[in-house]
Design brief:
α2 (about 45-70) runs parallel beside α3 (about 90-110). The chain has a four-stranded parallel sheet, sandwiched between helices. It is of the alpha/beta class. Helix content is about 50%, strand content about 10%. α3 (about 90-110) links the parallel β2 and β3 (about 115-125). The chain contains six helices and four strands; from the N terminus they run αβαβαβαααβ. The protein has a single domain (about 5-190), classed as Rossmann fold (3-Layer(aba) Sandwich). It is globular and about 50 Å long.
Length: about 200
């Protein structure tokens, strides 16, 4: 499914309802990077990142929430990023992820009366396939040696390592659970550091 295509998103959502009869949890975790400095960023760099990271989260949420409203229950977890606070060579990604955080807070207010919790996680440096995309664009972002950059990050991080996918998954699982019924509109930073 192309999450930037409304028709495909709505059809996929209807398929879930046909198979399972309901939607309890939505995790908006699709993401893409197209790093470049503002002088060199193309319309495609901008639009692709905004469409996948921000518009995709909007379309999926819009499609799922109507069923969640009917059942008076739902958990929506957005995936933002530490980059929402700003990141060189990532004005598109930072804008999209900051937008995801704003969307999270607005939807928590709007959907809370229907028993729907909306929260976000904001990962920092996590070892995933996307890390290799970061490695490829490092020089564009002013990072001469990605391995040295990674080691410097580890030394500054109180936990002394980069994150693993399961570090983020555990927080998402909590936010999607009944244990988080009284948590909404929050952005939880998963960075191994108290300062994000």
């Amino acid at each position: 499914m192309d999450i930037t295509n409304r028709e495909q998103v709505e059809n996929a959502t209807e398929d879930v309802i046909k198979i399972f009869g309901k939607i309890d949890i939505l995790v908006n975790n699709a993401g893409v990077l197209k790093d470049n400095t503002i002088d060199n960023m193309t319309d495609d760099d901008w639009e692709t990142v905004i469409d996948v990271n921000l518009k995709g989260s909007f379309l999926c949420t819009q499609a799922a929430q109507k069923y969640m409203k009917q059942q008076q229950y739902g958990k929506i977890v957005m995936v933002s990023s530490l980059a929402a606070a700003g990141s060189r060579g990532r004005v598109n990604y930072a804008s999209a992820k900051a937008g995801v955080q704003g969307m999270t807070k607005a939807l928590a207010i709007e959907l809370g009366p229907y028993g729907i919790n909306v929260n976000a996680v904001a990962p920092g440096f996590i070892d995933t396939d996307m890390s290799e995309v970061s490695r490829a664009s490092a020089k564009i972002r002013g990072i001469e040696n990605f391995d040295e950059f990674k080691q410097a990050f580890i030394q500054k991080n109180p936990i002394r390592r980069v994150g693993k996918p399961e570090d983020v998954a555990g927080v998402i699982a909590f936010l999607a659970s009944r244990e988080a019924d009284y948590v909404t509109g929050q952005v939880i930073y998963v960075t191994g550091s108290p300062v994000g």
